[in-house]
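Hey L., structure's done. Input below.
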Amino acid sequence: MARKYNTIALRDMASTSKVGYFKVIKTAKNKYWSSSMLEATPQNLWTAKRFAYGEAPPRFPWLPGAETPQPMNKVLLDHFFPPKEAFTPPPRLRPYKKAPTLTKKEMASTLST
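Output:
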């Protein structure tokens, strides 16, 4: 109604009503918590803590691809100690097909030096 008629008095009344509404809600929440904490038992104390602080943080930090300790262990090991690449021996030398054949004389002179 304050927006429709847009008068200063109606806007002030709407603002006061809004502030009062949220103040009443806050007072009711505080009263509820005070009474529930006075009646707290060991069984419902942890529930009250969860409501007050929200969900507990996860026990293990989040790592991509690791939701449990075993995959987390593998992810950390692979990150800090990466696996070595497999050794591949060089390919065997193959004779060059277009090369002329060596004579005994050429081989003997090469080996003698």
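The mean pLDDT is 81. The chain has five helices and no strands.

-- N.
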